[in-house]
Amino acid sequence: MGRVLLPDGARIVTASSDGTAQIWDATTGQEIIRLRGHGMVLAAPFSPDGARIVIASSDRTAQIWDATTGEEIITLHGHEGMVRAASFSPDGARIVTACSDGTARIWDATTGEEIIQLRGRKGAEWRASFSPDGARIVTASTDGTARIWDAATGQEITRIILDASVTGLSVYGGTIALGDALGRIHVLEAEDFLSAADSAGD
Hints:
Elements: E1 2-5, E2 11-15, E3 20-25, E4 31-36, E5 41-43, E6 52-57, E7 62-66, E8 72-76, E9 83-88, E10 94-99, E11 104-108, E12 114-118, E13 125-130, E14 136-141, E15 145-150, E16 156-161, E17 166-172, E18 175-180, E19 185-189, H1 191-194, H2 196-200
Antiparallel strand pairs: 1-2, 2-3, 3-4, 5-6, 6-7, 7-8, 9-10, 10-11, 11-12, 13-14, 14-15, 15-16, 17-18, 18-19
């Protein structure tokens, strides 16, 4: 269903509807380890240092796994629907999850404790990602909006409104790329909203 390449290019992780995430050697193509998630695996990104993987699952949970041993470290409980996406903060200390229950949630990546909920949308959350400095979170929803949030307070900073469900999200530098249900890609310059330092000067 999806694949993620570790930044050093040495390993790839794939997420599958068969309930597994697999780690592969990017050079040889050989499977290194297989992680058996809780139900259908919808996303499985590496932590920034490559030591952990967070799996988003159809059973309303996300799990953190050791990328070397394949052991499950901790399970994140609290969502009331299918967890569609998960990603680590740039420093690896937090995780954000996006769920069909209409919430995105921020978690402590060490303890598994929920830190804050991001609410206020009518549709299911399909994607969520931290900004490069970890100060902001961008969410993408089936209600046709992408929203930028303060990652510390959970306050909504701004929203982007499209005329179709937002099904894809990528945040790179000061740019947000959104994919919609009509097959279009929207590229937006959002540096002023994504940087805590910039906002503090307003």
